[in-house]
Amino acid sequence: MPTLTPDIVPGLIATGASARLDEDVAPKFSVGDAVEMKNINPVTHTRLPRYVRGKTGIIERDHGVFAFPDTGAHGQGHKAQHVYSVKFSFQELWGEDHAENMYLYIDMFDDYMRPAP
Amino acid sequence: MPHDHPHPHNKPLSDVELRVKALESILTEKKLIDPDAIDLIVDTYETKIGPRNGARVVAKAWSDPSYKDRLLSDATAAIGELGFSGVQGEDMVVVENTDDVHNIVVCTLCSCYPWPTLGLPPVWYKAAPYRAKVVKDPRGVLEEFGVNLPEETEIRVWDSNAELRYLVLPKRPQGTDGMSEAELAEIVTRDAMIGTDVLAAH
Fold first, then answer.
1. Per-residue pLDDT tens for A64-84?
2. Domain boundaries defined on chain A
3. Whether B20 and B99 share a structural domain
4. Which residues of A touch B40 (CB under 8 A)?
5. Is residue B164 in some structural domain?
6. Which of B73, B116, B128, B170 satisfies CB 3.0 to 4.6 Å to B192 for a cystine?
């Protein structure tokens, strides 16, 4: 691995490193679909927080194809897949006594979701 | 040992400080980093890249409707037009506050934050109390920040723990019609671009 030296810092900061992948992967879901987050409990790296596991939301936007951190973090490859903005009502997440006009949006990977029953 | 020189004795280093120093030593010894590179990164985010960048984006969006359209449809490209790009801003989304909708950004899993437009995150943004509470009681968090929104206002909380980074386009305050883009940029606060502040009328 090359040494991180001061001369390459400005270029690194200006360019960054997008996790977006230029791979042709079919989306599993479409905007408007009702989706259920899998109730899984990995002990390894994941971007699926506990508070949405088992909850149902609606696909709001397809962000395109990204590297999957759950495998990438452990040297198991990018496993390219779509990431979507998924909308949940607070009533779904926290209970029916919550206001109707409150929503949580979170970016979820294909592997975290299944079609809502 | 004689010890009569006049300097205040420092407290022992905290666990986090010790861990950071140990990591930096190991990475340096293994020739993975040059410590000067780390100093340059810290200096860049302390003195060159910060929320004034985001404020310029917001002021331009308020002043130029076609720029605002581009910003809301392809934020990464529109922010790039002003020269702001790079680490932790590779894939941006801008969400707009209106009379009916208020947006707030959080990263519940860590501290994801749009560095090119806002710089490094404030301590409270990274702290567990904000991250845990804002997804469950955003109105309570807003009250702690001195913001009270009408019950009719729809609240949207954005948990940015994948690879997208979010910037809130605040509502343009009343009484700013005559202001130039540069003047508008001066009144945009960092917290308004996170969503924990609402800009006061002028």
1. 999 999 999 999 999 999 999
2. 19-115
3. no
4. 6, 9
5. yes
6. B170
